[in-house]
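seq:
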Amino acid sequence: MQYVDGFLAAVPTDKKQEYIEHASMAAEVFRDYGAIRLVENWGDDVPDGEVTSMPMAVQCKPGETVVMSWIIWPSKEARDAGIEAR
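struct:
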């Protein structure tokens, strides 16, 4: 069964290109260690919640955008080995 690591982050909106470049470099490293897919999602139409929401989860400030990412590994064992090896 595949294994997924998921992430949420607040990224300065004016640093989108730098984030993309960093994420691309990181994706190469994770693939070298066995990841089979990496997905980056730049927030668009991510509403604030009253009780809970993605922006609240990452304490998103004005001028920041929520980014949701995940890494897919062939298995938990492959993920653990990949993380340990780096």
